[in-house]
């Protein structure tokens, strides 16, 4: 890579302190949910999407208001519309009948059973309002992951709140249970189902309901429901008739560009039309970017991570430090004219690719 281009990259418009990947915008105009959605799509990206507690805190801290406001979560109630999710944000539920007990899930006697209980290492759907022991998951870093059996008997939502305050979240998957599951015990795990969907099509499972059980949120048929964040109550979520009018919150963030360009062409496009090629500095940002990458028309999408042959190191083009990485096991060595691209499928890992290959890319 030529030294002049390297200098161009290092003097990009974004700095670590002035550039965010997405921003929340409070719109103090009373609109129905559908009107608010249309406004946000025309003027920003969409109605607010919240992927985890970090997003929720950013939303609350960035908005000076005590109003109740629409966010981008909405639901068409009914049993047939339910989808299973893991409580831990960024982890996608994969269907595997072998994980479930015989005949499960079954909505026993026609009741709504929307939370998963572990019985003899098999999953069973149970009413979320029942009280049982539960298993928390704790992750301090990528190499230190533990689980903890909590003997107090709580409802599923109470157990989720406890785990999020004291650990990371409720546990997911049988692979994490080998050294902490008690044979024969009835214990909540982090699997639930509901009918709620994000306006922008994201699959984020994060929920922040105020005193609402999962059963309350799926019972009944008929009219569409829309979610609100109640800003004078720590931003906790409620819901209302979508035809009522309220202020609302939009967001602006990453943009997937479905054009195949070389890495340098992608870099120039982002700087001319947005801010820069995207950088990823933590797991939260990885979750946001991989949601966009899933819709790419190429097998990979360019990221703003480049290898400098002259200085012999990898760097983000907007000067962020390379602390978090998600490299795939790859035989490619570090070489001149190489940049990072995220795979659109699988585990959305990063691969070293020659700059002259042509992929979609993500700007912010």
Automatic annotation (TrEMBL):
Keyword Hydrolase: no
Keyword Endoplasmic reticulum: no
PROSITE patterns from the UniProt entry: C_TYPE_LECTIN_2
Gene3D superfamilies linked: Mannose-Binding Protein A, subunit A (3.10.100.10)
Residues annotated as signal peptide: 1-16
Keywords: Receptor, Signal
Alphabetized SUPFAM superfamilies for the sequence: C-type lectin-like
Domain called C-type lectin: residue spans: 19-137, 132-251, 250-364
Pfam family, one: Lectin_C
InterPro entries on file: C-type_lectin-like (IPR001304), C-type_lectin-like/link_sf (IPR016186), CTDL_fold (IPR016187)
Name of the protein in question: C-type mannose receptor 2
